[in-house]
Amino acid sequence: MEKYLFVFCLAMLTIGCKDGPKPAEGEKPIDIEGFMDLFPDVALPLRIVDSTLKKAPKDSSAISYKAFTQFIPDSVWAKDFGKGVKPSLYPMGKATEKGKETYLFIRARHGTKQAGYLACFGKKNEYLNMMPIIKLGFDQFTSAYGLLDQRFQITTFRERKLKDGEIVFKRNVYIFNSAANEFLLILTEPNKEIIENIINPIDTLPGKNKYAGDYSINKKNFVSFRDGRRSSELMFFVHFEKNDGECIGELKGTARFISPKEAVYKENGNPCSLQFVFGASSVTMKETEGCGSYRDIKCFFEGTYPKKKEAKAASGKKKEINVKTTNKK
Q1: Which CATH architecture has domain 198-311?
Q2: CA dist., res. 316 & res. 329, Å (int)
Q3: Of the candidates 18, 24, 16, 64, which has an alpha carbon nearest to the alpha carbon of residue 37?
Q4: What pTM does this model have?
Q5: Which residue has the higher pLDDT, 255 or 323?
């Protein structure tokens, strides 16, 4: 732990001493090279821990909102902080995989909420994608961290202490899939059923496709679908817990339609393959090739999930948040 903290502190010291453009001093646009130069090179592995985010950053190191959104869309952090919110943004460091992508570590702060993001840029410094690797002020966890290691695998970790004193955790491992320009979940490791409300990473994304929506047996066994980049694709997130929580599986990815009612998930270099067959009010999921990296060994991605009805406002428009209603007497 001391090693990682030393590396992080060294990176922050480098930022403080760095010469060059300072977008925080005004709203003047900068070019992509100047933007990249604001992020000092850091050695891997680099771990961002919750205690680091609890410390107030130096305002002089902030990147102006206008300069930042030249290169990264604000819709990325709007999912966490809310639409229209402009958090303060700080560069933390960067690391480049030889001949491949460059990863930027970014800190966002607004009120009591903070997040550490990992943004991915291509070989020509073009923006590809970004994901949160640690968040504070959103969920109740006693400790958390985000990590990028020497193999350019990304780990998110959250730990919580239960009322009986037992320590429980959840660890997810991702890699960047350059073919689809997305972060691919390759491993999930809960030591126990620790999250009453499962975090759905695609929950707030658009869902205009006729098959988009949430299909659930209960709150711990569900499949969510949202619009893909093309009309022939659907993004999905699956979470299931079987045998009283002894067998857990979780996977996020993109399924592609091979017929009007059937979509499949299959990525190059990944043995895992899923089939989704849509009915009028349900979806049937089947694991067609080994997805052992995403589940425990005694269960599979399978089953039929009924589509969840969406709550509607009195005007007939869809509501963004489900609320309980009571019958008037």
Answers
A1: Beta Barrel (2.40)
A2: 22
A3: 18
A4: 0.54
A5: 255
